[in-house]
């Protein structure tokens, strides 16, 4: 008998059935993959399993008992959300034990004793930070592991649900998290692992359940299914995973030239972006890729160097001038930098096309509705209507709205920063197709990605960064992944491409 | 079983509309309170009483338009009341003590309001100060300046020529109320039909995303602070015209009431939602209730308690209806 059993779970909302007849059985000592596209019902299912929501139909059994009769059983299930939910200005130890009802020290907080106990958890989970460090100052993988450690301070916990725990991590950091997960599994616990990334599913998964449109469509042992079949189950159709999306057009003149640019977290960066190519940027988190692009875009202050676009000097430190000049930066931080959460889908899209819709008598609502309807249609944004608050759309649909909004302004240069973070496979392919089409239409495209497969499938050329400096520039089709990884870690194996010294030399002339 | 379930969660569409659209909700509340007042007091609907309410609403209404616009932007200016008072007093001094022609004195005083609002905006944008904390300070400075200039004594002898602006009627409607309606119309046009208005909502929602979209965030902030200062000065001048004296106490009630009105009208203190129209509806609700208190001869000391209770009720209703909507997964 499985430890966690769900039978025929259904959950109805007015007008929508979010979940229907879903079975799930999770055994101790194993990692269970929960797969499905955005909106497949994964989060609804997780909410029911953790007691945050109640099923309309069906039953759950935890350790053979119904948790609705014994609510304490829900304490056996711990959930680690995808977004970091730590307190940034509070110490690691306090974050770990918040709200201090698990320390067993009574009503007072004894800092020394708490930090000593925290150290045990940090050791067990391989977290390099000190208990007294502020969470704001520790690395992203440490934060991710701290969230898992925090869930495990609940001594009753048997099943740990991890919702895309690696979406903010690079390959090597993912390895660290996986090592911790595996060692944790030896302890007679189970893990439910939610992920979009195929390589992770096959690396860590043992059992799997696939949801689609609120129904269970497949379940079994990971060893008995292959990647193509799993993707087919998730999307309901064939998706060619080895398809590439490099632009099929000649690379022509220079769109943008960056010379010796310096700024926060990066120094002395020079590169050119040509028309007709997708220029990929590879590197670890903290290599300075986002900071570099945000500086070119004017969001951060440049401390030296200059940028030329179409042969003319580009004004730095002014996002309004950048947008007016046809450059757009689509941040990886959708929530922090992309959406206006309380405004409707229509207002969110309309904001970037005001120059098109505003006439002598103010904003022309009919024109705006027309443009918004076209963006919603062209980019396949699934919403109840243009009036729906954007914060209530799924992540993938928010991302499509942000991309569609940018496209409506006919940009000349588009910078995509991790455009597929937390997005399902089918939507990913749609975004790749959009980038390819734009590049072929002559828009300069820069793609920052931490997924090597994504860069290899989309980019024409890949520039690697390490520690705020460029470490190489490679033709994507003819370079081995090992060479790229070498350049990312700056181990000196990146012999295939030009070094920063070469790049500098070419600018001296 | 499924039909039974859907019957349970279905509710009247009118109720849903009310809860989804805060403007409709506060409007219904305003109409209801108006109707109840008309029923319980025979004097309420008299022409004289109506014009008393409208005239009173005009002054605080102008400041409410200013404050609610700042709140949509995610800012707050606690010095709007003392800006109004200071500009009123200065206009009185210019007319009476300096002997300037009234129109010129009024324009200079409006410019002073503009400058003080601009100063608040400049400190918020350039130094990155928190507007709530900053304007606690500037409110003290401007309020102190009133006392320094007047030594606490009202300036009398305001030219009768301008008193029409505060006391006059056009077709039975008080002039300051008409001015307030005109300002409201402009504010609504700006907020609904111009990029500037859209930018205000965007900045109130997410200033970082607004910058990423190429919106000149600081410029909009500066502009709204400046206009808010000017509107408060206008309220102060009209009050001087109404009273016929420049009282040092002008503006003292324009600090919390406009914020309360905006909150009742659906403007979030956290920014990004609401409308100046809703805020004026909120101000109307407060004005009617204060009027009823007077008509029933209740001690005016109760006014603060009553308007405080309304604010608490309004935000509680808002929070409850939002929770109700969310529970249905809407």
TrEMBL record, chain A:
- Matches recorded under SUPFAM superfamilies: P-loop containing nucleoside triphosphate hydrolases
InterPro entries per the record?
AAA+_ATPase (IPR003593), ABC_carbohydrate_import_ATPase (IPR050107), ABC_transporter-like_ATP-bd (IPR003439), ABC_transporter-like_CS (IPR017871), P-loop_NTPase (IPR027417)
Q: Name one GO molecular function term.
A: ATP binding
Task: List each copy of the ABC transporter domain by range.
Answer: 4-238, 249-492
Gene3D superfamilies to which the protein is assigned, alphabetical: P-loop containing nucleotide triphosphate hydrolases (3.40.50.300)
The reply to whether Transport figures as a keyword in the UniProt entry is: yes
Q: Which UniProt keywords apply?
A: ATP-binding, Nucleotide-binding, Repeat, Sugar transport, Transport
- Supply the name of the protein: Sugar ABC transporter ATP-binding protein
Write down the species.
Gemmobacter lutimaris
UniProtKB/TrEMBL annotation, chain B:
- Put simply, this protein is called ABC transporter permease
UniProt KW Cell membrane keyword: yes
GO MF, one term, reads: transmembrane transporter activity
Q: How does it sit in the membrane?
A: Multi-pass membrane protein
Query: Which chain regions cross the lipid bilayer?
Result: 21-40, 52-73, 80-100, 106-129, 141-165, 171-192, 220-241, 253-270, 302-320
Where in or outside the cell it occurs: the entry states: Cell membrane
Q: What is the lineage of its organism?
A: Bacteria, Pseudomonadati, Pseudomonadota, Alphaproteobacteria, Rhodobacterales
Q: Which domain of life is it from?
A: Bacteria
- Record's keyword annotation contains Protein biosynthesis: no
InterPro entries from the xrefs? ABC_transp_permease
Q: Which UniProt keywords apply?
A: Cell membrane, Membrane, Transmembrane, Transmembrane helix
Write down any Gene Ontology CC term. Answer: plasma membrane
Against Pfam families, the record matches this protein to: BPD_transp_2
